[in-house]
From TrEMBL:
An MF annotation (GO) of this entry: cysteine-type deubiquitinase activity
Reaction(s) catalysed by this chain's protein: Thiol-dependent hydrolysis of ester, thioester, amide, peptide and isopeptide bonds formed by the C-terminal Gly of ubiquitin (a 76-residue protein attached to proteins as an intracellular targeting signal)
Protein name: Ubiquitin thioesterase OTU
Entry keyword set: Cytoplasm, Hydrolase, Metal-binding, Protease, Thiol protease, Ubl conjugation pathway, Zinc, Zinc-finger
Enzyme category, top tier: hydrolase
Function of the protein: Hydrolase that can remove conjugated ubiquitin from proteins and may therefore play an important regulatory role at the level of protein turnover by preventing degradation.
PROSITE patterns assigned to the protein according to its UniProt record, in alphabetical order: OTU
Domain OTU residue range list: 117-236
A GO biological-process term: ERAD pathway
Compartments reported by the entry: Cytoplasm
Gene3D superfamilies: 3.90.70.80, Phosphatidylinositol 3-kinase Catalytic Subunit, Chain A, domain 1
A cellular component annotation (GO) from this entry: nucleus
Entry annotated with the keyword Metal-binding: yes
Length: 314
């Protein structure tokens, strides 16, 4: 007898038909062929739990004994530069919804893939960009880890990241980016794309422009930029599932996911989920100068060379 199983992998959704008398080894081989992955772990159920695919289990266990009929199996790859999924640390647990926006407005049903494109809102702690990207790759303590990696990368590539590019002496820039209250932006996204060999597509809510960091990469992560804040775009099969089961990495050839993410951004644009950077109050972390908007900040940077800007909470 055949049983139907749904797969959720970095490449998206798929359906699998397997003989219930097949071994776990047969199932693993079939999933590998379906996803083009060589090494991976499998999770299923709610809350997610590991499916035993150890060598011993593969040689002795039978698929029908696993009671997988109608289940969704989450496939987590091991054989790329991207870290295998791990439980999210407490500090990177996304908020459920942005302030002032209803939960059903932060997701869009995607019938073709039997699930939803959803906004995962990052903490407003000046490390949102690092948390948004790091969480997509399941990196524990992303703010600390990614800031350190960016700093080391800059110092290792002085010909590429000079004072002209950084707007400050590299040693000073590196010192600042290590601090937990310094914003990350385009420079950091470009560097992280190189470090992890993944394209980062950043969708601007206000303009709906897509900035892509990293060329000729096989995988893509999508984040959402709302003026002074970054959030993460994810896919899930059920909105009640925990974020640990999200799909957050896709092949760059999968343009459909980018279209769906832009469609969600368009909804958020209508809800005015962005900050108009022309009129918010900003502070220079170097000299405590205060100004209004990024235009003033740009003038101050040109006059002083300072780049450590933060939003002032009023």
């Amino acid at each position: 007898m055949k049983i139907q199983i749904r797969l959720r992998a970095p490449s998206g959704q798929a359906r699998l038909e397997v003989d219930d008398e097949a071994t776990v080894s047969d199932l693993v081989k079939l999933i590998g062929e379906k996803t083009d992955l060589k090494r991976f772990s499998l999770k299923y159920g709610y809350p997610l739990k590991n499916l035993d695919i150890s060598p011993e289990s593969q040689s002795t266990a039978i698929v029908k004994d696993l009671q997988l009929r109608g289940e969704t199996i989450v496939v987590a790859p091991f054989d790329t530069d991207i870290a295998a999924p791990q439980p999210l640390a407490a500090e990177q647990k996304p908020k459920l919804v942005p302030k002032g926006i209803e939960p059903d407005e932060t997701s869009l049903e995607w019938p073709d893939r039997y699930g939803f494109i959803v906004l995962r809102v990052m903490p407003d702690d000046n490390s949102c960009m690092f948390t948004a990207f790091g969480g997509a790759l399941h990196i524990d303590n992303p703010s600390v880890v990614l800031r350190r990696q960016v700093a080391e990368y800059i110092l290792e590539h002085p010909e590429k990241y000079s004072k002209v590019i950084l707007g400050a002496e590299p040693s000073l820039y590196v010192s600042r980016i290590r601090e937990s209250d310094t914003w990350g932006g385009a420079i950091e996204l470009s560097i992280l794309s190189d470090i992890y060999s993944v394209e980062i597509s950043s969708i601007d809510v206000k303009s709906l422009r897509v900035d892509q960091f990293g060329e000729n990469k096989e995988s893509r992560v999508i984040i959402l930029y709302s003026g002074i804040h970054y959030d993460r775009i994810a896919f899930c099969t059920d909105l009640s599932y925990p974020v640990e089961g999200d799909v957050t990495i896709w092949p760059t050839k999968d343009e459909d996911v980018l279209k769906e993410a832009k469609r969600l951004a368009q909804r958020l644009q209508r809800l005015h989920y962005y900050t108009d950077t022309t009129d918010f109050v900003i502070k220079c972390g170097t000299c405590n100068w205060n100004g209004q908007g990024m235009i003033d900040a740009g003038k101050h940077q040109k006059e002083t060379g300072h780049t450590d800007f933060r939003e002032m909470k009023i």
